[in-house]
Amino acid sequence: MRYRFEVLVTLKPGLADPQGKAVEASLPAIGFANVTDVHVGRHVGLDVEATSEPEARAQVEEIARRLLSNPVIEDFRVLEPAETDAGS
Amino acid sequence: MTIATPRVGVITFPGSLDDRDALRAVETMGGEGVDLWHADHDLRGVDAVVLPGGFSYGDYLRCGAIAGHAPILDEVRSFADRGGPVLGICNGFQILCEAGLLPGALIRNASLRFICVDVFLRVETSQTTITSELVPGEVVEIPVKHGEGQYVATTEQLRRIEDEGLVVFRYADARGEVTERANPNGSLDNIAGVRSTAGNVVGLMPHPEHAVDPDVGPTGGQPLIASLLGSALAGASA
């Protein structure tokens, strides 16, 4: 079975987030003076071939931990998967 | 009697830019530069290893993240464990952090701008393979050129780094005063470079290999490269 996973990687709270700051600073210019605490992270989508969802999820967790995120500066979250080839 | 020439390996990753300059700096300062390749499991018997600056793998994902898993990093890790001198410059520093050989991480400059400027660094310790010929408090002038050089660490890491004296260089003014104004990228505590607990692994954002030839700018890199060669020689004869 093939499972579609999405992983969100975000900067740890409290760490300087210059990208988030830059977005936040530009919002008043387009009419949103009421927005604060803007953060920018990374979204990674990946298809995993595995015999079961728990097996696939375990692999994605490992991938996220070892490569997609840096534990010093980032947290990650694996979103609920979807089967992508139900018909095959 | 012949005087041994220290052999310093410089690893080329896909996207390395400063490997040639690093080799040239080593040879300018009297060492022998040895080409190393990221995909080999072989350090060719060198006495010291340099991970040069550049944009390995396009710096996709995070700076240094993919290179941190390169085949040759296995050998770099064992070499470092045996006490061998390892120096990471700029992208090389990012790679050593990603590989877990140095504490902390490098993120986008606080200004969000790429910076290319000569900076002054205050030497914080002589107990490393690239500062053995310097004394704490001494100031060296060396260029930086990076977009992601803001040094960060977790609160616990930072406490350990400061308590154990793992900071090697801080951004300072010409007189050695560590000021906010002298901090080009927003690094925590003005940290420009750190070392491993044993002191044989060092990473820094500034580029000593670009600062050895008086014809092209400041020469603050000379004592760093000279120290590295001295450490390499000491290891080779040990």
Major sheet characteristics of chain A: 4 strands, antiparallel
Shape by Cα distribution of chain A: elongated
The CATH superfamily of chain A is Phosphoribosylformylglycinamidine synthase subunit PurS
Structural class estimated from helices and strands of chain B: alpha/beta
Low-confidence blocks of residues of chain B: none
How much strand of chain B? 15-25%
Average pLDDT number of chain B = 95
Topology readout:
The complex is a heterodimer of chains A (88) and B (238).
Chain A: E1 2-11, H1 18-26, E2 42-49, H2 53-68, E3 74-78, E4 82-83
Chain B: E1 7-12, H1 19-28, E2 32-37, E3 48-51, H2 72-81, E4 86-89, H3 91-98, E5 105-107, E6 115-123, E7 139-146, E8 150-152, H4 155-163, E9 167-172, E10 191-195, E11 201-204, H5 222-237
Parallel strand pairs in B: 1-2, 1-3, 3-4, 4-11
Antiparallel strand pairs in B: 5-8, 6-7, 6-9, 9-10, 10-11
Describe the protein's architecture and organization.
Chain A has a single domain (2-83), classed as Mth169, Chain: A. Chain A is built from two helices and four strands. Chain A has helices at residues 18-26, 53-68, and strands at 2-11, 42-49, 74-78, 82-83. In chain A, strands 1, 2, 3 and 4 form a four-stranded antiparallel sheet that branches. The longest helix of chain A is centred in the C-terminal third of the chain and has 16 residues, at 53-68. Chain A is elongated, with a radius of gyration of 17 Å. Chain A starts with a strand and ends in a 5-residue tail after the last strand. Chain B starts with 6 loop residues before the first strand and ends with a helix. The chains are: A alpha+beta (88), B alpha/beta (238).
